[in-house]
Amino acid sequence: MSSDTTLEQSTWTIRQIWMLTVACCAVALVVAAMAALNTALPDLARDTGATQSQLTWIVDGYTLTLACLLLPAGALGDRYGRRELLMFGLLVFAAGSSIPVFADEPSWIIVSRVISGVGAAFVMPATLSLLTAGFPPAQRARAVGVWSGVAGSGAIAGLVVSGLLLEKWSWHSIFVGLAVVSVLILVVSFTIVTSKDAEAAPLDLPGTALIAGSIGLFVLGMIEAPARGWLDPVVLALLIGGIAMTAVFSWVELRTRHPLLDVRLFANRAFGSGAASLTLQFLATFGLFFLIVQYLQLVLDYSPLQSALALMPIAVPVMALSVVAPLLIPRIGLRALTATGVAFLGTGIALLTRLDPSSTYAEVCVPLVVAAIGLGLSTTPATAAIVSNAPDSKQGVASAVNDATREIGSAIGVALAGSILAAGYGNHVQPAVDLLPEPAKEPVSGSLAAALHVAEAAGPQGAQLAEFARESFIKGMDQGALTLAAIMWVSAIVLGFWAPGRQRD
């Protein structure tokens, strides 16, 4: 290959850079929206009278709807135009985000989040499939790397921006901000080129219904597990139902002339290991977020904004390594990058066990940076493996697979970390609970936040209770962190055998 050809392949046009910019802004918006409201939940509860169950669905309604519709939305983009579906998704997202400005009852906020989730389901796969279809193979990996870095850092951006808005305005400002930004991206989307499958096959309606149902049941089961318990009949029914429906979906797709998702793609080692790797990465990452945010706010007494800013060091290695990783894939191979990244991610989470109630912020940064290095090394190669091993006509579906693995992994990570933390905290705090009057037992045994509230009203003895509750939380956090770390270390070994190595010239 000549030097001129190499230079041509490595140089992006203005049109490509602009398409990448719009796509990154759109994916950052919908990822940020997943985390943005977490900082506003106390204000929402106070101003609207929302119950704990309603608060849960204000957060989870978005994620659940998004996860259910990703694959069908990606397929529609392949058939009818990826830019058009991006714009449609942004329009729906803006409409959903606008509802609480005019109707701020808890039920309407939940409806708002569900509608926004529908819009986000069209936006996310469209952003990636536009890039994979709009960049030639020689340039695709770098573009995907930038996209992965932005997508991986979007949740932190959502926490920081929402925290800044709440410093000056009410929680309504978050919804206003989401609506305004989505409209702005919608307007500029008219300036990018579209793409679609030249020979559009009819939409696989049975497959669409089955995959939406299977993902919906499974994710709902994961959402309900921490509160109900893993052996609760409802949770078991949801999880088993989701798995069973997935099996039926696979059976149907193997016998359908125009399947929504060709499940044979998972037999490709790169595609299959990439999808598994992403699921595991986001399981660990969102489990980490769940543990560390509570530690910062409840143990170290950080404000929501301070805790969001404290997570910013994660974004730097993730962004930098996501850009560098595509250059390493041909030289090192998917196997080494994926296994190393997942192992680093596990090590960073394991380092959470070194934290205690008197830890400094510098000590907090160490596990965050180590975990971020692992995420930066492994996310882009996994995404590239998925989109590079799917045909061009199925880039929307491949992008949706990439996004769905992230959502499913996130749900599992939060549910797993939440359950282990709750069990560990409850067991260790029990001796103090036994000594408390009856009205105080249930809240203290339920959570550290409730225990600290009880301690504030308990007078001089409250300080001792608060200290013991914080120590119990640390014990539960340690158990959760070690469990997540062990999963990552075992996964690194498995991926080291499963993922393909460096291709020989």
Name a few traits of the molecule.
Growth Hormone, Chain: A; mainly alpha; 505 residues; 3 domains
Low-pLDDT parts are 1-9
| Strand and helix order | HHHHHHHHHHHHHHHHHHH
> Tally of extended strands?
0
Specify Rg, calculated over alpha carbons: 23 Å
Distance between the termini: 13 Å
Number of helices: 19
The overall number of domains is 3
CATH T-level fold name of the largest domain: Growth Hormone, Chain: A
Largest sheet: none
Give the C-level CATH assignment of the largest domain.
Mainly Alpha
In what range is the share of β-strand residues?
under 5%
Task: Provide a descriptive summary of the structure in words.
The chain is mainly α. It has three domains: 14-194, MFS general substrate transporter like domains (Growth Hormone, Chain: A, Up-down Bundle), CATH 1.20.1250; 204-259; 267-505, Growth Hormone, Chain: A (Up-down Bundle), CATH 1.20.1250. It contains 19 helices and no strands. The protein has helices at 3-10, 14-36, 41-48, 52-80, 82-102, 106-134, 137-168, 172-189, 205-228, 233-254, 269-299, 304-310, 315-332, 334-350, 361-388, 395-434, 438-446, 448-456, 462-498. α4 (52-80) packs parallel to α6. It is globular and about 75 Å long. Residues 1-9 have low confidence and may be disordered.
